[in-house]
Amino acid sequence: MALSLARIIGTITGKVAFERTDANFQLIQTDVNTNATDIGDKATLITIDKTNLVAAVNEVKEQTNDLDANKADKVQEAWITGTLQNGWIGTLQYAKNDLGIATVKGQLTAGTVTADTAVANLPTGYLPTTGYLPIDTINVSSGANTKPGLTVNLSGLIFVTIDANFTAGQSIVFEKMFYAG
């Protein structure tokens, strides 16, 4: 609970403490004024401090402007809707940010579900830079988190894996991020 200054000073203990603090402040102020010649002219010191402060603020502004001008734009582009194949329906979307990270996401109903069946193709610029990338899927119809039910390869083909544990007509969801070239 905070007490008001008047209430604190109104007590004997508070009054004594305030007087001691005030007396110490007066001694410090007198000491600074008396010894100002030892540390330099106060007006000069104030001017130097202001000059240094202005210089520091300008330096920080310059650094901030440099960071802003050279930062990576981490805002992802608008989602692009992909074309589904082989009886697959729903929404498959992809996008890439300025750091080269692509994201592919989907809410799909399975069409043909045999190993290596094409689901969609990613265009140039959205292709993985390394090997085959498994895509973990969630089978919304059964509630199961499936093993990698889909895979995307270096040419951008998204296809059904051999051990997908969903069947035609079941709904799946997924999201995969990877470096794209």
Summarize the structure.
The chain has helices spanning 5-9, 12-34, 36-39, 42-70; strands at 80-81, 89-96, 101-109, 118-121, 133-139, 144-152, 157-160, 171-179. With 181 residues, the chain is an alpha+beta fold.
Q: CATH homologous superfamily of the largest domain, by name? A: Phage tail base-plate Siphoviridae RBP, head domain
Shape annotation: elongated
Helix count equals 4
Query: Could you list the spans in which at least 5 consecutive residues all have pLDDT below 50?
Result: none
Which sequence of strands runs across the widest sheet? 1-2-3-8-5-6-7-4
Can you write the helix and strand succession as a string?
HHHHEEEEEEEE
Structure report:
- This protein has 181 residues and is α+β, with helices and mostly antiparallel strands.
- The protein folds into two domains: 5-70; 80-179, Phage tail base-plate Siphoviridae RBP, head domain (Immunoglobulin-like, Sandwich).
- It is 34% helix and 29% strand.
- The chain has helices spanning 5-9, 12-34, 36-39, 42-70; strands spanning 80-81, 89-96, 101-109, 118-121, 133-139, 144-152, 157-160, 171-179.
- Strands 1-2-3-8-5-6-7-4 form an eight-stranded antiparallel β-sheet, with no helix packed on it.
- A hairpin with a 4-residue loop joins strand 6 and strand 7.
